[in-house]
Amino acid sequence: MRSKIATLLSITSLCCSIMISSQVYAGDTIKIGSFLAVTGGASFLGDPELKTLQMYIDKLNKEGGVLGKKIELVHYDTGGNPKKAVNFIKRLVKKDRVDVIIGGSTSGTTLAVAPLVKKFKIPMISLAGSIKIVEPTQKWLFKVPHTDRMAAAKVFADMQKRGFTKVALISGSGGFDKSGRTQSLALASKYNIQIVADESYGNKDTDMTAQLTKIRASDAQAILNFGFGKAPAIVTKNIKQLGIKLPIYQSHGVASKKYIELSGDAANGVRLPAAAIVVANELADNDIQKKVTMAYKTQYEAKYDQVSSFGAHAYDALMITLKAIKQAKGVDKKALRTAIERTQNYVGAGGIFNMSADDHMGLKEDSFKLLEIVDGRWQIVN
To answer: Does the pLDDT of residue 4 top 90, yes or no?
Structure first.
């Protein structure tokens, strides 16, 4: 009997030891949760985002972590599905007990989880473009990419400069696409531009000639497409196939080499706003972003494929998060949220960030570069 009791006590002691060890390990680890569209139609967003997070977290852990603690990345692939995003947020908070969240890749997944972020009171930095993510400002929710409103303004300013007054708008069915359409319609008159055609397509559509035929019949002087994924490339190719000679503008939703590859030579001449990271090599040596963008570009391309603005969004979100953790001296969620909100003069791949209680993004329109595709390459439009 004594032997059995001793054995039970030994097992109990061992279990307690394991529990205590796990608790100590958890306490010594900073948990960053993420939910990204690594597969599916938005994989060109999520894939470089996840690669960026993994690359820099591995690098930081080899250097000793942050505040003496290792960083653990807990990631789930949404495939761009808002319902999956909601389930993953619940899992990240309740089961994984992460300290902060970076994601999602798309506006749809981000907006779907926004109520839960508020409910759980956990700081989250989105990598999506819709202005609805930060307007109105939500206490626990931030974002790093430029907004669709900024993109529309950048495009319309260039159109105005070129003397275009009548524009055809075509947009996709996603959250980013619809928000971009709304912002474009609202801003056009400010630049003395009239929207003379307003067409839409499903993001899984494989042919947009019907909508573009209507645009061809209008008196439009230029075309603006608001969308992301494969659809904008199809629009670009269909325009060429129909023999439409109008100047084409796209949004920052296609600021990656993938768009050029999918569009082929039809992409030549297309203009769009994009972050400086896309043209890091072309930045002037005295440009304040040159050092940051080139460092990220060099490290990313040494390990993976060509750099994109989407992976750079993950880089900025991670660096802002880490700076906030250091400022908060830990991962108390309230302190961490406040520290993120107080981000000032952070020179990132996407621009210079200055956040506040009223601005949970912190970028100005001049952080955008206007680019034109020339011979399959990006070129800054001066």
So the answer is: no
CA distances from 208 to 3, 83, 171, 242 (A): 79, 28, 11, 10
Supply the DSSP string of 107-144, one letter for each residue. HHHHHHHHHHHHHHT--EEE----GGGTSS--TTEEE-
pLDDT tens readout for residues 250-282: 999 998 889 999 999 999 999 999 999 999 999
CB atoms within 10 A of CB 6: 10
Q: Measured between alpha carbons, how far is 327 from 169 in angstroms, rounded to an integer?
A: 45
| Per-residue model confidence (pLDDT) at position 160 | 98
Alpha helix (H) residue ranges in the chain: 2-27, 43-62, 82-94, 107-120, 148-161, 175-187, 209-216, 231-241, 257-263, 290-303, 309-328, 333-341
Which residues have CB under 8 Å from 352's CB, separation 6+?
288, 289, 345, 346, 363, 364, 367
Residue 171 Cα distances to 119, 189, 208, 339, angstroms? 33, 18, 11, 37
pLDDT digits (tens, 9 = 90+) for 16-45: 333 333 333 346 899 999 999 999 989 999
Question: For residue range 104-163, what is the model confidence (pLDDT) as tens digits?
Answer: 999 999 999 999 999 999 999 999 999 999 999 999 999 999 999 999 999 999 999 999
- Which residues fall within 8 angstroms of residue 42, CB to CB, at 6 or more apart? 79, 80, 105, 106, 228, 229
Rounded Cα distance between 201 and 211, Å, is 8
Domains and CATH numbers, the chain: 29-146+291-365 (3.40.50.2300), 148-274 (3.40.50.2300)
